[in-house]
């Protein structure tokens, strides 16, 4: 009598098999970062908004795990500041029309600075 054949699939790292995606941040930390970011923006009249955006997004990304691999964000407020000024000027020149593209440009910048930590 022949033995029944059993096929077992063992997932490899990075394939998503047997690994979880999750977010491990908590509400207290999030509220703290939102308050700090808002205060910085208020007291600098929005001049440090790129710093606040990077801190908030960095916190979200550093607490995100996809397929068992933690994400990392290496963007800085100073790196975003130049683009921020350019986008602001384009919004003024185009009477606000560029603001529709500004959000997309910001998302592209965030994505280009987001990596797997390991």
From the N-terminal CA to the C-terminal CA, the straight-line distance is 48 Å
The spatial strand order of the largest sheet comes to 1-2-3-4
Q: Any idea what the radius of gyration is?
A: 21 Å
How many H/I helical runs?
Answer: 4
Annotation, overall tally of beta strands: 4
> How many discrete domains?
1
State the major sheet: 4 strands, antiparallel
Fraction of residues in helix: 40-55%
Describe this structure in words.
Helix content is 53%, strand content 11%. The chain has 118 residues and is of the alpha+beta class. The protein has one domain (22-116). The protein has a four-stranded antiparallel β-sheet with strand order 1-2-3-4. Helix 1 (27-43) runs antiparallel to helix 2 (49-62) and helix 2 (49-62) crosses helix 3 (77-93). The longest helix has 17 residues, at 27-43.
Task: Offer a few descriptive terms.
disordered N terminus, 4 strands, 11% strand, alpha+beta, four-stranded antiparallel sheet, 118 residues
Give the gist of this structure.
The protein is an alpha+beta fold and 118 residues long.
What does the secondary structure layout of this molecule look like, with pairings?
Blueprint: E1 22-23, H1 27-43, H2 49-62, E2 64-66, E3 69-73, H3 77-93, H4 99-112, E4 114-116
């Amino acid at each position: 009598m022949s033995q029944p054949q059993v096929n077992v699939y063992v997932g490899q790292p990075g394939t998503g098999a047997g690994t979880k995606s999750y977010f491990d941040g908590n509400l207290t930390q999030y509220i703290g970062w939102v308050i700090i970011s808002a205060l910085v923006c208020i007291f600098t009249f929005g001049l440090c908004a790129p710093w606040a955006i990077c801190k908030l997004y960095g916190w979200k990304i550093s607490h995100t795990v996809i397929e068992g691999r933690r994400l990392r964000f290496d963007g800085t407020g100073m790196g975003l500041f130049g683009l921020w000024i350019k986008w602001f000027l384009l919004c003024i020149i185009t009477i606000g029309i560029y603001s529709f593209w500004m959000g997309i440009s910001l998302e592209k910048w965030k994505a280009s600075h987001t990596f797997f930590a390991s």
